[in-house]
Amino acid sequence: MRVFVTGATGLIGSAVVAELLGHGHSVVALARSEASAAAAEKAGAEPVRGALADLDVIREAAGKADGVIHLAFANAFSSAEALASAVAEETAALKVQAEVLVGSDRPLVTVSGTPYAPGRASTEADPVATDGPVGGRGRTVAEVLEFADRGVRTSAVRLPRTVHNNGEGGFAGLLTTIARQTGVSGYPGDGTQRWPAVHALDAAVLFRLALEKAEPGTAWHAVADEGVRVVDTAAVIGRRLGLPVESVPEETYGPLGSLFATDQPSSSAHTQQALGWAPEHPGLLADLVNIRA
């Protein structure tokens, strides 16, 4: 299968590209810079120059592909305004990809976050949030999944709050970055809130499985650790960086503060049973020991 991948050179995207190429697919990668194009080519993909805002480039590449995996999202968490702009940009790009595939029965795999279910681990049957700081992404994914009724084999891989590899990535990666900046390995509240997590290499396998065999309009959970306490995550970061571990205000985390403070475990039992997905790489706490001191 010739697969068009956006976000192909990021932490998750590079793992997805390697997974696809390792299983006989070819990859066309959206590359927004010469450096990204070179990285994609080195990995074995065919680069196509363009950014997420270049809708004509995206439309053409998606239309020529046998399937699409959408991963790109601007790293814009500094303010609510920047985050809203990133969501709008992604929405336009996703809708272009869905529209060009109408009536083709070709797969379009997109990404969202695992939902919040008060008092329990969320499941694939729970809806994603459509309000809050990233609610716009939830609304867009819901619209894209409805293209299943228009002849597109849409599916969504829901990623947990931390997708990690060698101690980097996700919310845990943001904790590490802020710890380096502030000199404190912090956590909001009492730190007992739990975040789900998955290794990027395991998540990549699920993206491939969804591309190859997910039914139209379905959602899947890329969750290995159902819920790791944030205080435990901060403790490992503190040990690796030689910093004190303390509770800090939610405001430390900007527009994501309310998410950081929420207990949000998640399950992937249905995904593992239905698609035969079996995470096998190190869990979050074990992987965080790879953080550079």
From TrEMBL:
<dbReference type="GO" id="GO:0005737">
    <property type="term" value="C:cytoplasm"/>
</dbReference>
<dbReference type="Pfam" id="PF01370">
    <property type="entry name" value="Epimerase"/>
</dbReference>
<dbReference type="InterPro" id="IPR036291">
    <property type="entry name" value="NAD(P)-bd_dom_sf"/>
</dbReference>
<dbReference type="InterPro" id="IPR051783">
    <property type="entry name" value="NAD(P)-dependent_oxidoreduct"/>
</dbReference>
<feature type="region of interest" description="Disordered">
    <location>
        <begin position="114"/>
        <end position="135"/>
    </location>
</feature>
<feature type="domain" description="NAD-dependent epimerase/dehydratase">
    <location>
        <begin position="3"/>
        <end position="216"/>
    </location>
</feature>
<dbReference type="GO" id="GO:0004029">
    <property type="term" value="F:aldehyde dehydrogenase (NAD+) activity"/>
</dbReference>
<dbReference type="InterPro" id="IPR001509">
    <property type="entry name" value="Epimerase_deHydtase"/>
</dbReference>
<protein>
    <submittedName>
        <fullName>NAD-dependent epimerase/dehydratase family protein</fullName>
    </submittedName>
</protein>
